[in-house]
Write a structure and sequence with these properties.
With about 700 residues, the protein is an alpha+beta fold. Helix content is about 40%, strand content about 15%. It contains 28 helices and 22 strands. A hairpin with a 4-residue loop joins strand 7 and strand 8. Helix 5 runs antiparallel to helix 6 and helix 13 packs antiparallel against helix 14. The longest helix has 21 residues. The chain starts with 15 loop residues before the first helix and ends with a strand.
Length: about 700
């Protein structure tokens, strides 16, 4: 099954493996007659699943087909007498779904469950019978795909069915593989239903199933689903696109000639590669037409180059960019940085001497298989590698190497979704996020990664890492620099989240404006509903700085070598012992004292101020101004003042600036009994919850 072929039968080069094996591509919509149970002996497969067996053996030559025979016989017997709306025997549906998965390379357990996927839902077969006959794994997958009863859930049956399937997918991705194949066959045969029902099913497919197929990397299913949905929801645009493709079919296609040129270049370079023309599917042509306007012949397809090893991909890229004119802006390296749905390839575009621009995809054959079939191509991700693993606790959740961050996030937030409507709405919004970023967390004790949708903020990272404890988040450092919680994150950022120790802390209502993940939005909304007084709070108007002023200081313990001169410590650098200092005579006969590295020293000398020698008294107390930067919270000023008092330090004056993006600056002029106590004082102030930096002014 080709992921992108507009007309696969017309382009056999798009599926070289089928041509080599001498098999023709089956039209599953005409499978009805083959599904009827014909005469068969006990030791041979029923004729109806011969096509399934052939497709399965093409990917798994040593597969044991006896379990498929038993599963088919149970399914056919159970569904016997049931008919589809199209008039075909119902057994044609599980057969068609199973054949789709077999052609994608699914392993035997998946195909067994696929044959049985509607038996528990639509027949008298029970899960216990499936478990007794086929084992726990098949039973789990069949149960995961089985819809919940409408009689129990009413209008909420559809969202609750998807919730159930997604939870099951969290433990076994094969559940969703079967669901996607099931929806594809249903969409292929949707024409027998009323237009309004076609539109409803197509919208759910567009909003939920297609994004899931994209995220699981099953491009072969995703692209056909897109075309089928396009035809139903946008019939006029679909017809115009079809006419555009039909008109192109009657013209000279430049892509085969370009492919021949690429083959020649790679052959001369000694690179073993297969080069194919990949026609675009309907939706892809429609998107390109909207972007580029009038299409040229090379816009209706792409060149696909398949090689053996990763290094060969870059060798091909080098030859392409050497022998053709590269379009630099079109280059993307999804091998070094794979997409979050397992996809790997090199993408580039080259211009030919004739003026055509051809897009080129370079990948290994294994990458191609994964690009087409996604998680289906990985086989059984739960096969134990060692006897010890097989003997592990069966009740433990199995670690699935195919589970990306988006699925883990989805499984987490769905537990907090208060009702089916919320779950359904948030699910669609979550799946609409089509890009992922990975950020590194740094909490001082451990470093790990957090997967988030593109556009996520520090608020999303806080709830992804800390859950409901993120209600007390008061700020963050991104790549070592302080930033507001509303700041968006980029791929590769390192995030340190700062939490308040105050148990009464909670999120502000404006956090909802910057939260992108469902987990964050649900948690914030729930907290605000439980604390309506905080939800109704509005940002207070800007206020003048709050000042607490004590006695004004003079020269402290600085002594100038000028009799009867008044000595003043400069406010710009607030020198204290044992700082190296310089004094300058200013108007009024006073001597101002600066730290030697203060910028004002050079200015004083530049304007010709008289220099005066100054020194420190041996035992006098000192005066210093400190700047404390913190995140706003209740009682912060009181806690800082208490920390200062515990160090035996007198507050001469204090100034608190109005909050800016939840950040507050406190300036303290302090009288210390001894300069040696300054480092301990600054540490004590930094230890106050919410304070992230203390420095001398």
């Amino acid at each position: 099954m080709s992921a992108e072929a507009t007309n696969p039968e017309a382009h056999p080069e798009a599926r070289p493996e089928l041509r080599r094996r001498g098999r023709t591509r089956l039209d599953l919509r005409r499978l009805g007659r083959a599904a009827l149970l014909g005469p068969t002996s006990r030791d041979r497969l029923p004729d109806a699943i011969g096509h399934v067996a052939e497709a399965h053996r093409a990917h798994h030559p040593d597969a044991d087909l006896s379990i498929l025979r038993r599963a088919y016989l149970l399914a056919e017997t159970s569904h016997r007498g049931q008919m589809r709306k199209s008039g075909e025997p119902y057994i044609t549906h599980p057969l068609a779904v199973t054949l789709i998965l077999a052609e994608l390379g699914a392993e035997t357990t998946t195909l067994t469950a696929s044959l049985l996927h509607d038996t528990v839902e639509d027949t008298d077969v029970t899960l216990d019978q499936v478990r007794a006959e086929f084992g726990d794994e098949v039973c789990f997958i069949v149960d995961g795909v089985t819809k919940v009863e409408k009689i129990d859930y009413g209008a909420a049956a559809e969202p609750e069915t998807f919730r159930k399937m997604l939870v099951a997918t969290g433990n076994d991705v094969r559940v969703m593989s079967i669901k996607l194949a099931d929806r594809l066959h249903n969409m292929r045969t949707l024409g027998v239903m009323r237009p309004e029902k076609q539109a409803r099913i197509a919208k759910v497919t567009r909003d939920v199933l297609i994004p899931l197929a994209e995220r699981l990397g099953v491009q072969a299913l995703k692209t056909e689903l897109e075309d089928l949905v396009f035809a139903i929801l946008h019939p006029e645009e679909y017809e115009s696109t079809r006419a555009l493709i039909a008109a192109h079919a009657g013209e000279r296609d430049p892509l085969p000639a370009i492919a021949d040129s690429v083959r020649g270049v790679l052959r001369d370079a000694g690179i073993a590669a297969e080069v194919h023309v990949r026609p675009r599917h309907f939706v892809s042509v429609h998107r390109i037409a909207r972007t580029r306007g009038e299409l040229r012949g090379s816009d209706f397809g792409r060149i696909l180059v398949l090689v053996g090893e990763n290094a060969d991909c870059y060798a091909v890229l080098g030859e392409m960019h050497t022998c053709f004119t590269p379009v630099v802006s079109e280059f993307k390296d999804f091998i070094a940085a794979p997409k979050f749905n397992l996809y790997q390839s090199l993408h580039t575009a080259v211009a030919t001497p004739e003026g055509y621009v051809a897009e080129v995809i370079v990948r290994t054959r294994q990458m191609h298989r994964v690009a087409e079939a996604g998680v289906v191509a990985l086989g059984n991700p739960y096969t134990t590698a060692t006897p010890d693993a097989a003997a592990s606790d069966p009740d433990e959740e199995r670690v699935d190497p195919t589970r990306p961050g988006w699925l883990s996030r989805l499984l987490d937030w769905q537990q907090s979704a208060p009702d089916p409507d919320t779950f359904w709405t948030v699910l669609r919004a979550e799946l609409a996020q089509d890009r992922e970023i990975t950020v590194f967390r740094d909490d001082g004790s451990a470093t790990g990664t957090i997967s988030l949708p593109a556009g996520a903020s520090c608020i999303d990272a806080a709830y992804a890492q800390h859950g409901e404890a993120a209600h007390g988040c008061i700020g963050a450092r991104v790549n070592g620099r302080l930033t507001s919680l509303s700041s968006p994150l980029s791929d590769g950022d390192t995030v340190q989240l700062l939490l308040a120790q105050d148990a009464t802390s909670g999120p502000a209502a404006e956090w909802l404006d910057h939260a992108r993940t469902p987990a964050a939005r649900i948690a914030i909304s729930s907290w605000l509903e439980a604390h309506p007084d905080r939800a109704m709070a509005t940002t207070s108007a800007a206020r003048a700085p709050l000042s607490v002023v004590g006695a004004r200081g003079g020269g402290g313990n600085a002594v100038a070598d000028l009799p009867d001169a008044t000595v003043r410590l400069a406010g710009c650098c607030t020198p204290v012992p044992p700082d190296a200092v310089a004094g300058f005579l200013v108007r009024g006969g006073a001597v101002t004292v600066h730290r030697i590295h203060c910028a004002a020293v050079a200015q004083m000398r530049a304007v010709g101020r008289t220099s005066v020698a100054v020194h420190w008294r041996a035992t006098a107390d000192v005066r210093v101004t400190l700047l404390a930067e913190s995140f706003g919270r209740p009682h912060l000023l009181a806690d800082l003042t208490e920390a200062i008092a515990r160090e035996g330090v007198e507050v001469v004056s204090a100034t608190v600036e109005p909050p800016v993006e939840q950040r507050v600056r406190h300036s303290y002029t302090l009288q210390l009994p001894d300069a040696a106590g300054l480092p301990a004082l600054m540490r004590a102030m930094r230890d106050v919850p919410g304070v992230y930096d203390v420095s001398r002014v």
